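The material for today's practical consists of a large collection of protein records. Read left to right, the backbone structure tokens trace the chain's path through space. An example says more than a description, so a record of this kind follows:
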Amino acid sequence: MQYIITAPKHLEATIDLPASKSISNRALVINALSGGNTLPTNLSDCDDTEVIIKALAEMPEEIDIMAAGTAMRFMTAYLSTREGQEHTITGTERMKHRPIKVLVDALRYLGAEIDYAGEEGFPPLRIHGHTLEGGRLEIPGDVSSQFISALLMIGPVLKNGLELVLTGNIMSRPYIDLTLHTMHDYGARAEWTDIRTIKVVSNGYKERAYHIENDWSAASYWYEMLVLMKDKMSELTLTGLMDASRQGDSAVRYLFSMLGVKSRFGITEQGVPTTVALKKTDFRVPRMEYDFKNQPDLAPTLVVTCCLLGVPFHFVGLSTLKIKETDRIEALKHEMRKLGFILTDHNDSELAWSGDICEPDAEPAIDTYEDHRMALAFAPAAILFPGLRINEPQVVTKSYPEFWDHLKAAGFEVKNEE
């Protein structure tokens, strides 16, 4: 499947953003650990969340989480605590090549019984659930924050709780804090005791009603669209976003303030900010440098945006991009060349553009590599490349199923080429 995207000349729309996938997935697992029978409200309808909902509701002997990396990590930890249950957890072919050894080793150290059903260090996994002892555990801080979050979330149900020590450089700290915040909402006692150590008390969770806020990651693509529009009168309103959000990707509003977008929150009668209005400004930095270790999912959006604006950049803290749905560093280099931009990478963790260009493809078609972020980050490029083609556009269902419908509602033409 291929979509051909043509952008409008003027952009003015209100976008009802999807619910936060990150919060939804955490709340679902914590709610299950609490014994709650009522699901959180405003859950994300993306693929990653749907597979967790299905797995928790049905608990089949074989759980197929497809391409959902978050579900693989969170459910592996959750299933390890299910007394007397045995499950095999598997996924797509790509998932079977995404490393999980660090998490499995950590869970085994805490007392989990997990066997590899295929290649050592990778899914699928055979998990024999039982009550885990818990205790003190060291884990590298530069692994996927989802490994760390998976361990933290089961901490309150471990016999001796959990003392988690993060060694080395700590990546994606806001995602760890988001996990702790969601745990607190369900009554857990879990705190940083120093800059590297998190203490989780064995006191379980309390069942409660829970509402999910909307997704700042999804907002980033609309920031990108607005800043790329030549029409200075274009403006957007995004719903359900919280000014004091614990989502790490809420930093998108600060990043795009450096590229020419002003964010203003609307206030309800109860004094709660629920919408953000985006307007263009004349300010733009001549060059951008940023460490994405706390917001790696925003990197594709900023890479595409900066190139199309002609803003040279040097981005670091990108090591986790190598183990996402695809190797995003290589994918970004390859696809940006189709649009005429030559990127360089260093140390498997840095990406830069110094202004080097090449001849763009006559009719560029962006490959998405089974990676939702690639489709989402490149679609706004149609503003400068009318008729831009996006291959396998359905991958957006992993995090933003309504994206193409929202584009159409905002005035984009989205033509389906089978």
Observations:
- The two ends are 5 Å apart (CA to CA).
